[in-house]
From TrEMBL:
The gene is glk. This is Glucokinase. Signal peptide: none annotated. It is found in: Cytoplasm. Pfam families: Glucokinase.
Amino acid sequence: MPKLTHSEAPLPFPILIGDIGGTNARFSILVDAYAEPKHFPNVHTADFETIDAAIQQGVLDKTAVQPRSAILAIAGPVRGDEIPLTNCDWVIRPKTMIANLGLEDVLIINDFEAQALAIAGVSEEHRETIGETSEGMIASRAVLGPGTGLGVAGLIHAQHAWIPVPGEGGHIDLGPRSERDFQIWPHLEPIEGRISAEQILCGRGLQNLYHAICKVDRIEPVLVQPADITTHALAGTNAQAEETVTLFVTYLGRVAGDIALIFMARGGVYLSGGISQKILPALQKPEFRAAFEDKAPHSALLKSIPTHVVTHPLAALAGLSAYARMPANFGLATDGRRWRR
Ligand SMILES: Nc1ncnc2c1ncn2[C@@H]1O[C@H](COP(=O)(O)OP(=O)(O)OP(=O)(O)O)[C@@H](O)[C@H]1O
């Protein structure tokens, strides 16, 4: 086991854990390393002016347990003492939290690091396997999450620990390969001149792809929300929506295969995020796995790598709890992201 340095010393219990999304914030309290987490009702970020008010009213006012520390996962980079969230107005100020909420120790990490912590221990009941099941190995893994954006993280297994590797993998280039791709690509909305994976593989990306397909087919688009597109696709009630979702899972397979190669993720690639669970029947068709495995000269390697959809309803919180209980099992970098009284 790696030796604990002072900055990696366990956070003191009870620990408040939180998954702070753009729309929803989910909180639990871990009383000790063995107790089941006590969950609190979802908090809508728009209902509270500050995260401190949300924690006070949504958690602390509802329990007699006073947390001594907090581990929060947020969407966006963690830098400095004032951390704005990507998709909502909250700014996280750990020093103010320590002063006002009775906390003595606060750790802030990236939301996809929390997803990576979660896939270290996700059980069979909390995942759906896509394609042939191969025996799970204790080996590096990766997670991709199409939701509001496309989150990507690796989970390296080394020195008897799981080491989450957060990054900006959702922004890698995604190029056309098939004849149909070459028809569609000129009609996709680019970002500063290029098509990144996130231009297609997220909620907004579903709309982008659907509109491009409608343009190529010279059809007036009739579907507006990402959920309309996937609902019609799964029901087989709109041809362009069906093709959108078929291509979406193909491109997701292509990118997931690339990420598997980068991390040598023999332990499996996991799909999280709000969209994966909603398009599970489409992911179970052959296209996702075919694209995932189509990686010459390494197709045999990719064939041996399992792929799963994470179905745990609170995966990020489960990952944070696993870390909070047994920090020595994880090589989580805390430098510049941990504040103490
Ligand atoms: N049925 C659906 N099919 C396809 N996309 C959907 C569906 N329902 C929601 N979405 C899209 O999923 C995205 C939200 O993803 P997700 O639930 O992962 O949110 P998030 O990024 O985790 O944010 P938060 O944690 O704040 O809720 C939005 O773009 C939304 O339009």
